[in-house]
Amino acid sequence: xxxxxxxxxxKETADLAKKFAKLVVQNGAFVSLYGEIGAGKTAFVKxxxxxxxxxxxxxxxxxxxxxxxxxxxxxxxxxxxYRLENEGxxxxxxxxREYSQGKILTFVEWAEFSQxxxxxxxxxxxxxxxxxxxxxxxxxxxxxxxxxxxxxxxx
Length: 155
Ligand SMILES: Nc1ncnc2c1ncn2[C@@H]1O[C@H](COP(=O)(O)OP(=O)(O)O)[C@@H](O)[C@H]1O
Ligand SMILES: [Mg+2]
Prior knowledge:
Layout: E1 2-7, H1 10-24, E2 29-34, H2 41-51, E3 66-69, E4 76-80, H3 86-91, H4 93-98, E5 105-109, E6 122-129, E7 135-142, H5 144-154
Parallel strand pairs: 2-5, 2-6, 4-5
Antiparallel strand pairs: 1-7, 3-4, 6-7
Protein backbone atom coordinates (compact mmCIF):
# COMPACT_ATOMS: atom_id res chain seq x y z
CA UNK A 1 0.00 0.00 0.00
CA UNK A 2 1.43 3.33 -1.09
CA UNK A 3 0.52 6.98 -0.95
CA UNK A 4 2.28 9.99 -2.48
CA UNK A 5 1.78 13.69 -2.02
CA UNK A 6 3.65 16.62 -3.50
CA UNK A 7 3.71 19.51 -1.03
CA UNK A 8 4.53 22.77 -2.76
CA UNK A 9 4.53 24.77 0.49
CA UNK A 10 5.28 24.09 4.15
CA LYS A 11 1.56 24.69 4.79
CA GLU A 12 0.69 21.73 2.55
CA THR A 13 3.18 19.60 4.46
CA ALA A 14 1.52 20.77 7.69
CA ASP A 15 -1.89 19.70 6.35
CA LEU A 16 -0.50 16.29 5.43
CA ALA A 17 1.08 16.01 8.89
CA LYS A 18 -2.26 16.84 10.55
CA LYS A 19 -4.02 14.15 8.57
CA PHE A 20 -1.28 11.66 9.41
CA ALA A 21 -1.45 12.62 13.12
CA LYS A 22 -5.19 11.90 13.23
CA LEU A 23 -4.62 8.45 11.74
CA VAL A 24 -1.81 7.41 14.10
CA VAL A 25 -3.05 8.91 17.36
CA GLN A 26 -5.22 5.90 18.23
CA ASN A 27 -2.67 3.10 18.03
CA GLY A 28 0.69 4.73 17.44
CA ALA A 29 3.13 3.70 14.71
CA PHE A 30 6.79 3.17 13.90
CA VAL A 31 7.84 5.44 11.07
CA SER A 32 11.16 5.42 9.24
CA LEU A 33 12.09 8.47 7.20
CA TYR A 34 14.52 8.63 4.29
CA GLY A 35 15.74 11.44 2.11
CA GLU A 36 18.61 13.83 1.59
CA ILE A 37 19.67 16.33 4.21
CA GLY A 38 17.26 19.24 4.13
CA ALA A 39 14.56 17.29 2.30
CA GLY A 40 11.99 17.68 5.07
CA LYS A 41 12.18 14.65 7.40
CA THR A 42 12.54 16.59 10.64
CA ALA A 43 10.02 19.17 9.39
CA PHE A 44 7.41 16.43 9.00
CA VAL A 45 8.10 14.97 12.47
CA LYS A 46 7.83 18.45 13.99
CA UNK A 47 4.52 19.15 12.23
CA UNK A 48 3.04 15.80 13.30
CA UNK A 49 4.17 16.39 16.89
CA UNK A 50 2.61 19.86 16.84
CA UNK A 51 -0.63 18.44 15.44
CA UNK A 52 -0.64 16.07 18.41
CA UNK A 53 -0.30 18.97 20.82
CA UNK A 54 3.35 18.76 21.85
CA UNK A 55 4.28 21.62 24.19
CA UNK A 56 8.07 21.54 23.89
CA UNK A 57 9.96 22.84 20.91
CA UNK A 58 10.67 20.00 18.50
CA UNK A 59 14.28 19.98 17.29
CA UNK A 60 16.43 17.67 15.22
CA UNK A 61 17.97 14.88 17.32
CA UNK A 62 20.98 14.50 15.04
CA UNK A 63 23.42 15.22 17.85
CA UNK A 64 21.65 13.39 20.64
CA UNK A 65 20.28 10.47 18.57
CA UNK A 66 16.95 10.45 20.48
CA UNK A 67 14.49 13.12 21.55
CA UNK A 68 11.33 12.21 23.40
CA UNK A 69 8.16 14.18 23.98
CA UNK A 70 5.58 13.33 26.60
CA UNK A 71 3.32 16.35 26.36
CA UNK A 72 1.40 15.30 23.24
CA UNK A 73 -1.66 13.04 22.92
CA UNK A 74 0.63 10.01 22.69
CA UNK A 75 4.33 9.65 23.57
CA UNK A 76 6.61 10.57 20.68
CA UNK A 77 10.15 9.22 20.21
CA UNK A 78 12.29 10.79 17.52
CA UNK A 79 15.57 9.13 16.56
CA UNK A 80 18.15 10.39 14.12
CA UNK A 81 20.68 7.67 13.32
CA TYR A 82 22.67 9.79 10.92
CA ARG A 83 25.73 9.44 13.11
CA LEU A 84 25.64 5.67 13.35
CA GLU A 85 27.35 3.47 10.81
CA ASN A 86 25.21 0.86 9.05
CA GLU A 87 26.63 -1.88 11.27
CA GLY A 88 25.92 0.21 14.34
CA UNK A 89 22.29 0.44 13.34
CA UNK A 90 22.04 -3.35 13.11
CA UNK A 91 23.17 -3.63 16.71
CA UNK A 92 20.31 -1.46 17.94
CA UNK A 93 17.56 -3.07 15.84
CA UNK A 94 16.29 -5.07 18.82
CA UNK A 95 16.02 -1.92 20.86
CA UNK A 96 14.23 -0.16 18.03
CA ARG A 97 11.81 -3.07 17.74
CA GLU A 98 10.65 -2.27 21.28
CA TYR A 99 9.84 1.23 20.10
CA SER A 100 7.54 -0.33 17.49
CA GLN A 101 5.34 -1.82 20.20
CA GLY A 102 2.54 -0.24 22.19
CA LYS A 103 0.65 2.99 21.71
CA ILE A 104 3.57 5.24 20.99
CA LEU A 105 4.68 7.11 17.91
CA THR A 106 8.28 6.54 16.90
CA PHE A 107 10.08 8.33 14.10
CA VAL A 108 13.51 7.28 12.88
CA GLU A 109 15.58 9.32 10.46
CA TRP A 110 17.84 6.73 8.93
CA ALA A 111 20.21 8.26 6.45
CA GLU A 112 22.23 5.40 4.92
CA PHE A 113 20.36 2.44 6.34
CA SER A 114 18.84 0.10 3.76
CA GLN A 115 15.12 0.65 3.43
CA UNK A 116 13.99 -2.96 3.31
CA UNK A 117 15.81 -4.28 6.32
CA UNK A 118 13.50 -3.31 9.14
CA UNK A 119 12.21 -6.67 10.41
CA UNK A 120 8.98 -5.44 12.00
CA UNK A 121 5.84 -3.58 10.94
CA UNK A 122 6.39 0.04 10.11
CA UNK A 123 5.62 2.91 7.76
CA UNK A 124 8.30 4.16 5.40
CA UNK A 125 8.35 7.77 4.30
CA UNK A 126 10.64 8.90 1.51
CA UNK A 127 11.09 12.63 1.11
CA UNK A 128 12.45 14.00 -2.17
CA UNK A 129 13.02 17.44 -3.64
CA UNK A 130 10.81 18.36 -6.57
CA UNK A 131 10.78 21.36 -8.92
CA UNK A 132 10.25 24.82 -7.43
CA UNK A 133 11.36 23.77 -3.95
CA UNK A 134 8.38 21.43 -3.52
CA UNK A 135 8.78 18.19 -1.56
CA UNK A 136 7.34 14.79 -2.37
CA UNK A 137 6.33 12.61 0.57
CA UNK A 138 5.96 8.92 -0.43
CA UNK A 139 4.46 6.54 2.13
CA UNK A 140 4.71 2.77 2.12
CA UNK A 141 3.08 0.50 4.72
CA UNK A 142 4.26 -2.80 6.16
CA UNK A 143 1.66 -4.62 8.26
CA UNK A 144 -2.16 -4.50 8.33
CA UNK A 145 -2.54 -1.64 10.83
CA UNK A 146 -0.15 0.48 8.84
CA UNK A 147 -1.94 -0.37 5.60
CA UNK A 148 -5.12 1.05 7.18
CA UNK A 149 -3.26 4.24 8.07
CA UNK A 150 -2.05 4.69 4.49
CA UNK A 151 -5.57 3.93 3.21
CA UNK A 152 -6.74 6.75 5.46
CA UNK A 153 -4.27 9.12 3.81
CA UNK A 154 -5.70 8.19 0.43
CA UNK A 155 -9.22 9.29 1.45
N1 LIG B 1 6.98 21.86 1.47
C1 LIG B 1 7.93 21.71 2.41
N2 LIG B 1 7.87 20.65 3.26
C2 LIG B 1 8.82 20.49 4.22
N3 LIG B 1 9.84 21.31 4.43
C3 LIG B 1 9.95 22.40 3.63
C4 LIG B 1 9.01 22.63 2.60
N4 LIG B 1 9.38 23.76 1.97
C5 LIG B 1 10.47 24.21 2.58
N5 LIG B 1 10.84 23.41 3.59
C6 LIG B 1 12.01 23.62 4.46
O1 LIG B 1 12.98 22.62 4.20
C7 LIG B 1 13.73 22.36 5.38
C8 LIG B 1 13.73 20.87 5.70
O2 LIG B 1 14.67 20.64 6.71
P1 LIG B 1 14.65 19.36 7.64
O3 LIG B 1 13.24 18.96 7.86
O4 LIG B 1 15.48 19.64 8.82
O5 LIG B 1 15.37 18.28 6.70
P2 LIG B 1 15.88 16.81 7.01
O6 LIG B 1 15.43 16.43 8.39
O7 LIG B 1 15.28 15.96 5.93
O8 LIG B 1 17.37 16.87 6.88
C9 LIG B 1 13.10 23.17 6.49
O9 LIG B 1 13.85 24.34 6.67
C10 LIG B 1 11.72 23.49 5.94
O10 LIG B 1 11.18 24.68 6.46
MG1 LIG C 1 16.56 15.80 10.07
